[in-house]
């Protein structure tokens, strides 16, 4: 018997109340923030298939400490009779999950294939995100075909739900004589969803890069680590006019970020 998820909020609003009833899932300790839902295991009927899942275009979602963040989800599915529609998608994370309320909109790209899309807005000030929420999240999807076939798949696709990052740089002195020492400082920080402030991201590898004046390409000079407060500091010798920046490759919980280049005039 098919059991549909309970819809407990208006379209575009997260249902993350601390009083929500935990989900029933095998081999899992339910979270206090999990939306009420009861689903069978992966399965379906007939030849309906989910072929692609895309979240926010690149399967990465970075959330800051304030302001609304819209998460868009697209699920592509096929069936020989065409796709009729989809149930509300569910997003499952390491700390909790939530259901995207309202039915997704499905648009056909052929007689057999459609892409169903939906979006939801996240507000870190009201949605009780914790830092433990960052990491790999999954999209659960139920798709119906025109002939009564359907497919239900947990973890139909995955994406990174990340704490937004910031990176600064300052190269001095400016100007500087050729051959003299330039000190390059900066700071790597990321959103703390529990304090709603940015805090230093410690012990992370960050590249110091340089772009010669007139060039469009940065090259890496050295790699250093952020200290216990996220601060960065190193030195280089002045050679030619150009731009210095720090570059962070990112982690599972924190997106990649580049500082804006700081120009140094070499005399």
Can you give me a brief rundown of this structure?
The protein is mainly β and 267 residues long. 0% of the residues lie in helices and 49% in strands.
Mind explaining what this structure looks like?
The protein is mainly β and 267 residues long. The protein folds into two domains: 43-163, Sandwich (Immunoglobulin-like); 165-264, SOR catalytic domain (Immunoglobulin-like, Sandwich), CATH 2.60.40. The protein is 0% helix and 49% strand. The protein has no helices and 20 strands. The strands form four sheets. Strands 1, 3, 5, 6, 7, 10 and 11 form a seven-stranded mixed beta sheet that branches. Strands 15, 16, 18, 19 and 20 form a five-stranded antiparallel beta sheet that branches. Strands 2-4-9-8 form a four-stranded antiparallel beta sheet, with no helix packed on it. A hairpin with a 4-residue loop joins strand 13 and strand 14 (197-200). Residues 1-38 have low confidence and may be disordered.
Helix content: under 10%
Question: What structural category characterises the helix and strand content?
Answer: mainly beta
Order of helices and strands: EEEEEEEEEEEEEEEEEEEE
CATH superfamily of the largest domain: Immunoglobulins
CATH class categorisation of the largest domain:
Mainly Beta
Question: What is the tally of beta strands?
Answer: 20
Q: At the third CATH level, what is the topology name of the largest domain?
A: Immunoglobulin-like
Known CATH architecture of the largest domain: Sandwich
Q: Separation of termini?
A: 78 Å
């Amino acid at each position: 018997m098919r059991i549909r998820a309970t819809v407990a909020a208006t379209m575009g609003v997260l249902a993350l109340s601390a009083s929500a009833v935990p989900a029933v899932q095998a081999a899992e300790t339910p979270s206090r923030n999990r939306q009420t839902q009861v689903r069978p295991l992966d399965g379906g009927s007939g030849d309906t298939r989910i072929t692609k899942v895309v979240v926010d275009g690149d399967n990465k979602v970075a959330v800051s400490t304030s302001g609304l963040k819209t998460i868009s989800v697209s699920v592509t599915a096929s069936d020989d009779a065409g796709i009729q529609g989809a149930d509300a998608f569910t997003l499952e994370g390491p700390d909790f999950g939530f259901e995207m309320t309202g039915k997704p909109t499905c648009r056909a790209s052929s007689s057999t294939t459609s892409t169903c899309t939906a979006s939801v807005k996240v507000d870190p000030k009201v949605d009780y995100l914790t830092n433990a929420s960052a990491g790999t999240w999954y999209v659960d999807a139920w798709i119906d075909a025109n002939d009564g076939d359907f497919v239900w798949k947990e973890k139909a696709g995955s994406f990174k739900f990340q704490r937004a990052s910031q990176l600064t740089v300052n190269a001095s002195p400016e100007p500087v004589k050729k051959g003299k020492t330039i000190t390059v400082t900066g700071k790597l920080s990321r959103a703390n969803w529990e304090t709603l402030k940015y805090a230093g991201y410690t012990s992370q590898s960050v590249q110091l890069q340089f772009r010669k004046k007139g060039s469009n390409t940065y090259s890496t000079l050295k790699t250093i680590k952020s200290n216990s407060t996220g601060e960065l500091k190193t030195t280089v010798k002045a050679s030619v006019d150009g731009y210095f920046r720090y570059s962070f490759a990112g982690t599972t919980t924190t997106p990649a970020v580049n500082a804006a280049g700081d120009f140094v005039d070499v005399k």
